[in-house]
Amino acid sequence: MKILHVVSGYLPQDSGGTQMHVRDLCAAQRRLGHEVGIFTRQGGTGAEHLSVVHDEWEGVPVARLNNDFVDVDRFELLFSHPVIDRRFGEHLRAFRPDLVHVHHLTCLSTSMVDVARRAGLPVVMTLHDYWMVCPRGQRIHPDDLSICAELDRRRCLPCLQALWPHLLPRGPARGLLGRLLGRASSAELLRAWERRMHAVLDACDATISPSRFHRDRFVEWGLDPRRARVVTHGLPRAELEAEPRGTRPVRSIGYVGTVIPSKGIHVLVDAFVALGRPELRLDVHGEAPSFHGQVSYVDELRGRVPAGLDVRFHGRYENRDLPAVLAGLDVVVVPSLWWESFCLTAREAALAGRPVVGSRLGGVGEAVEDGLALGFAPGDAADLAAVLARLVDDPALRDGYSRKGGLVRDLDDCARETLEVYRAVLGVGAGEGA
């Protein structure tokens, strides 16, 4: 089978959880005898806007479309772009895949799905976050970090207007000139965007969610449950597996991942302060990008730490360094405040033989329910401090939660189930389509 994976950014420029899953899935599919390629977006490289360059990453051919948004003067061009569609169609004709697997379309064009369907190709989409129902991606309000449990577009509109004031202007619905020219109001543009997202998902032959919780949120929004599969992510076990740390004393409590407010690192810092044990160290590993314009988060975190406590911010790490990063930690905490779709970090830490503590929320909460992690109430620093105190003081508890790697799915097993989804939409049997 020849598979084209579509993703909003790719290695080495982008190396988030979605990108790592795509990399790992491609490697597993190649081991299983299939041919794969990637179509992705890059930006800020100096390449001509909307041009496509070709290279290879870890043996996989990659087509990189350069999108610097210099021509985006209408809200619609953020999610449906005719030139990007044309470039994608050209690549489909050159690559000639049997199936298109979409992972993320932000910074690309949702109508690429229509291009693939017109070419007679089935489309499978993995829903890695909430971008298809929330243009900010996390269903969390940036001002107060509250989860948008209900999708109220009246609340969405001012949130998005703060992000794109030039594309979704505030003020009266339409001035006289706007009415004469037939321009839609910002509220009408947002309604049109939501209709478009429904149409895109309806056009997919199947969707994949990495957790039951994530699938259910999309079904609540209107996704057809008959075409909504749950396929939990697998991990490359050989790269990460290590001996369980067992009963050894705790010296380092750690966080690994992007350092932004929705990930709840401030909750972890407050819990560490409440724990009040100067013999311990809190190690925070990860890049701290702008969070909707906020760039002072790490400084704010440092300001929460009193003298006498050891909190260290190590900054960005390379994926190849992850085993060493995890080996330097005794406990890994996932304090997310948003509905994570899955949470690779919890599984990576479990494979590395580290006890995991996670908020009972979304995909992280599912890891708690499945027995992989100890749970605490989301956003509750006092509860997190109490759970950490139990781990620090109870060797048997530490030992038990350092032996949860067996609950993490193997990458090849995940790849085989994903191929079953492909074969179902292609209408071929398990022994065909290789």
List the helices and strands and how they pair.
Elements: E1 2-7, H1 17-31, E2 35-42, E3 52-57, E4 60-66, H2 82-95, E5 99-102, H3 112-118, E6 123-126, H4 153-163, H5 176-180, H6 186-203, E7 206-209, H7 212-221, E8 228-230, H8 237-240, E9 252-256, H9 265-275, E10 281-285, H10 297-303, E11 310-315, H11 322-327, E12 331-334, H12 344-351, E13 356-359, H13 362-369, E14 374-376, H14 381-393, H15 395-401, H16 411-426
Parallel strand pairs: 1-2, 1-5, 2-4, 5-6, 6-7, 7-8, 9-10, 9-12, 10-11, 12-13, 13-14
Antiparallel strand pairs: 3-4
Helix pairs in contact: 1-16, 4-6, 9-14
Short account of what is shown:
By secondary structure, the protein is an alpha/beta fold. 37% of the residues lie in helices and 16% in strands.
What does this 3D model show about the protein?
The chain has 434 residues and is of the alpha/beta class. The chain contains 16 helices and 14 strands. The chain has helices at residues 17-31, 82-95, 112-118, 153-163, 176-180, 186-203, 212-221, 237-240, 265-275, 297-303, 322-327, 344-351, 362-369, 381-393, 395-401, 411-426; strands at residues 2-7, 35-42, 52-57, 60-66, 99-102, 123-126, 206-209, 228-230, 252-256, 281-285, 310-315, 331-334, 356-359, 374-376. The strands form two sheets. Strands 3-4-2-1-5-6-7-8 form an eight-stranded mixed sheet, sandwiched between helices. It has a six-stranded parallel sheet with strand order 11-10-9-12-13-14, with helices on both faces. The N and C termini lie close together (5 Å). The model has no long low-confidence stretch (mean pLDDT 94).
